[in-house]
Amino acid sequence: MTAPAVCVLGLGLIGGSLLRAAETTGRRAFGATKSGADAEQARADGFDVLPTVDAALARAAELDALVVVSVPLPAVDEVLRAVNRVAPRCRLTDVVGVKAPVLDAVVRLAPNARYAGGHPMAGLAASGWAVGDGRLFEKAAWMVSVDEGVDLQVWADVARLALDVGAFVVPATADDHDAAVARISHLPHLLATTLAAVGADGGPLSLTLAAGSFRDGTRVAGSRPELVTAMCEGNKVALLTVLDDALGRLGAARGSLASTGSIGVTVRAGHQGRGALDEFEPPELIADLAAPGILATLRELGRRGGRVTGLADTRSAGGPA
Amino acid sequence: MTAPAVCVLGLGLIGGSLLRAAETTGRRAFGATKSGADAEQARADGFDVLPTVDAALARAAELDALVVVSVPLPAVDEVLRAVNRVAPRCRLTDVVGVKAPVLDAVVRLAPNARYAGGHPMAGLAASGWAVGDGRLFEKAAWMVSVDEGVDLQVWADVARLALDVGAFVVPATADDHDAAVARISHLPHLLATTLAAVGADGGPLSLTLAAGSFRDGTRVAGSRPELVTAMCEGNKVALLTVLDDALGRLGAARGSLASTGSIGVTVRAGHQGRGALDEFEPPELIADLAAPGILATLRELGRRGGRVTGLADTRSAGGPA
User: Fold this and answer.
1) B 70-109 near A (Cβ less than 8 A)
2) In terms of CATH architecture, what is B178-279?
3) CATH topology of domain B6-172+282-311
4) Most trustworthy range by pLDDT among A107-121, B122-136, B202-216
5) Looking at the domain that runs over A188-279, which CATH code has it been given?
6) Is pLDDT of A201 > 80?
7) Per-residue pLDDT, B321
8) Which residues in chain B (124-163) have CB-CB distances under 8 A to chain A?
9) Is the pLDDT of residue B160 over 50?
10) Euclidean distance between CA atoms B233 and B220, whole angstroms
11) CATH classification for the domain delimited by A6-172, as one of 3.40.50.880, 3.40.50.720, 3.10.580.10, 2.40.50.140
12) For residue A156, what are the CA distances in angstroms to A10, A62, A114, A311, B316?
């Protein structure tokens, strides 16, 4: 079974890296973007960039390509309307950092698409085609949705693409994913942004003394504000929960420092948390998508932080026996 | 004028790196530590480690060496008592991360020492002799105290040592330093520790999805908890001020996200703050310590985030004309 062609819509850091990476896997790969600058640079670099999103979707329909929506959350609806107009039954995935809102939008705006959402956990501090890198996904976690109603054939398409570009696949539901990234991506961005502002308020002496802890802690505050804002606002409910968690912990630390002069409990809890990250060894699975109850198996694997590191070489679900 | 010998008390990451670095400058360098493990490894690596702190101080008195206190804040008093007993009039500096408490302790416990406190802004996530590195201070900021009563000859000794091991010198008063490091070192540690705990609370899915923003944002949470605790608790007043600043900003972000769904103001402020760090170009000075009003000049330079990048080749202040 040949892997389907890949149609990447949006050629910023992630989309641009994916177009490059997909081509190295031997897949036919093409794309489109509304950014004239990105399109021009991608073409100059020798990639197959169609003049419009509609033109790319028409070709995707013709080839039964896997369409990858790689635009920021606020631009997703417009792309999905084009999908529904031009390639309503296409294989569809996306790489947006929040999954429940995209799933809702697909159900609303492109209900006939064969959809399995995804999210590669890859860098964000710079943006645009020019900073893309075909190796961006190597050793990255690539979440692929295991929500009710997911198309298992498209799930396999996305998982195989992720594996072929060097990532490992983390199966998770949209809600579980969004709760997790609120903790490990959106909260870090908000803390980095807060730290950067407090640090800069200290004036030139603070800036000249700033070393590793401040540089590391504020790195992602250098990301494009529109992208960070869209990402955080798109995950409002989950983010509020973890923000309250963080505020509670910081407030407790403040209270303890002010009253008893001690901050050891906070520091030790953080040290343990970082240790948990360093020591975590995820369970791994070669997934057989034709196995009975595979969706439940994948969901359970994801809850345990597990990774799919390969697909068993059987026919994809729904294919002829 | 030959640079004085260097006597390093405490051979952990910073002291151990400094002993290595001082030796490469051609200075006579020796040390002592209460840690049997660090002493043994340092000796095995060929360094001159005396059996006790008292023995090292006796030699320092004999050679008029520069004594560098490189122990964590809670151990400073004990070392200063030894200084006052064995080498009461020695040239004295320290590398402790909080300066006002050390200055107070010196006034109290070693009042006859010729003292100029210091603080190299160099890494902390690992600790002990074994992880030390003679190049740790290259391109690092090394704060040297310009408080009233500082010994200008010792100031020059410390500054020359810092410059010779590749650092640049930032002159600041103890209070200004402590206010600044609360923002750019102690707050980052507390935020990292909070983030690590909140992230780990998310369980295995969070850990397996954790990528750059979480890893960077929690790196210093891996530091030895006793060191971080001592550092933060030793700077309680300044840290409470910036912690309140951070809590206020995070609380405002939370309120805005909950009520209007918007978080753009926070994200843009952080982006600007990080930009200020990246764009900051510190004024630089070759300092002539014999110039009239030099202390005031240095203080003003520090307030503007400036660096001393060399010492003018005149006699040090207080020397014979």
Assistant:
1) none
2) Orthogonal Bundle (1.10)
3) Rossmann fold (3.40.50)
4) A107-121
5) 1.10.3660.10
6) yes
7) 37
8) 124-125, 140-141, 143
9) yes
10) 17
11) 3.40.50.720
12) 22, 20, 12, 8, 74
